[in-house]
Design brief:
With 160 residues, the chain is α+β, with helices and mostly antiparallel strands. 19% of the residues lie in helices and 43% in strands. It has a five-stranded antiparallel sheet. A five-stranded antiparallel sheet has the order 6-7-12-9-10. The chain has a two-stranded antiparallel ribbon with strand order 8-11.
Amino acid sequence: MSAIEETPLPGIGTRLEFFTIEGRRMGVVQHHGGRRELFVCAPGDPDRASLSVDLSEDDAGRLSDALGVAREDRHEDRTYEVEGLVFEWIDIVDDSPAAGHSIAQLRVRTRTGASIVAAIGPGLSVPAPEPDFVIEAGQTLVVAGTADGVNAVRDLVAGR
């Protein structure tokens, strides 16, 4: 049996993959926003997906049930630290005071010392958003800075 390899995909999520007995590379990309992509590659070309399917949380649960796998509520670690630089994925909830305001209006960098390095949401993937980028509920912000700066952004979008 082939081991499952886990590969962090910075700014995206995690790829979990293995090789089937037929030699097909197969796996799932778990995006930080919760979306999942199931992929299967042809035996002769492990770098080209011959099938790719987006799975909602319900779809993934039904597939898990169909395969006879016990479900487990997993909350992946959404904070990474590299030599004092912290990256964190922060969800913007419906009642966030940041929703409807641009990065510039909130003065995120000036007030916190941290930077929003990406915004992810349904049908949205914005690397290095400009200051006029408007933050909306349902998005996930990828924030980079010191631990204190990232905490300050979390407090800012939560209205604390």
